Amino acid sequence: MSTQQLPDEYYRLLLEIQEVDFVLVELTLYLDTHPNDLQALQQFNQFTLKSKQLKQSFEAKFGMLQQFGGSFADANWSWGTAPWPWQV
Description:
The protein is mainly α. The chain is built from 2 helices and no strands. α1 packs antiparallel against α2.
């Protein structure tokens, strides 16, 4: 698949998803060693919600983002028809 020019919003949303998911990875690692930190748990839940909202928004505009049940399929099984994140 060749890369194509996509709207600025595609790149903005993709970057924001990557940033939020990075925070979730870091919070997960922290919580593995500090499981009773209620503030970190609250932050984890806030960023989890933000990640889900961003991914829903992205998928509504640009198609499936996640595989293996992480995203709902459309009627055309368009998984893999958009450029992969590393292709943009």
